[in-house]
Specification:
The protein has one helix at residues 13-22; strands spanning 2-5, 28-31, 37-38, 53-56, 61-70, 80-87, 92-95, 97-98, 110-118, 121-128. By secondary structure, the protein is mainly beta. The protein folds into 2 domains: 2-56, no CATH class; 61-128, OB fold (Dihydrolipoamide Acetyltransferase, E2P), CATH 2.40.50. The strands form 2 sheets. Strands 7-6-5-9-10-8 form a 6-stranded mixed beta sheet. Strands 1-4-2-3 form a 4-stranded antiparallel beta sheet, with no helix packed on it. The two termini are 21 Å apart.
């Protein structure tokens, strides 16, 4: 589903992205020129240089490309992961996979995006597609 064109607003693409996220909407850009998706938001298509970029809502399905476990003491919040996720739309983004024990997380695991409010800030996290 397409929403506003990236150039239609006087706000920059990063501000538009975070504004939509604050409203609970996860969006990425799609180039009208070459049809490619991109993430992180930019004013030009990273594939062909075109400026006609539209915001689209990705399906949210993806795959764990890589990850690292950050070890912390339980009183400091416990262990967490930092993951690179390949979305089905062809973009890669850094996030985390929630609800999966560190020893069960694996490369190639299918995941699904969720918009989460964490300490007052909206962010995109992923959960196991099996749990979604």
């Amino acid at each position: 589903m397409q929403t506003e064109t990236a150039g239609a607003s006087m706000r920059g693409p990063q501000e538009q992205y975070f504004s939509a996220l604050a409203e609970g909407r996860f969006q990425i850009q799609r180039c009208a020129g070459c049809g490619a998706h991109q993430f992180f938001p930019r004013v030009l298509c990273m594939h062909c240089g075109a400026t006609d970029l539209a915001w689209t809502e990705p399906v949210g399905a993806g795959t764990v490309y890589s990850f690292s476990i950050v070890r912390r003491k339980p009183e400091a919040g416990g262990d967490y992961n930092v993951a690179l996720i390949d979305l089905d739309e062809g973009v890669r983004m850094m996030s985390r996979v929630d609800g999966v024990a560190p020893e069960r997380l694996r490369i190639g695991m299918p995941v699904k995006a969720r918009v989460l409010r964490d300490e007052g800030q909206a962010l995109v996290v992923f959960v196991s597609a099996e749990a979604a």
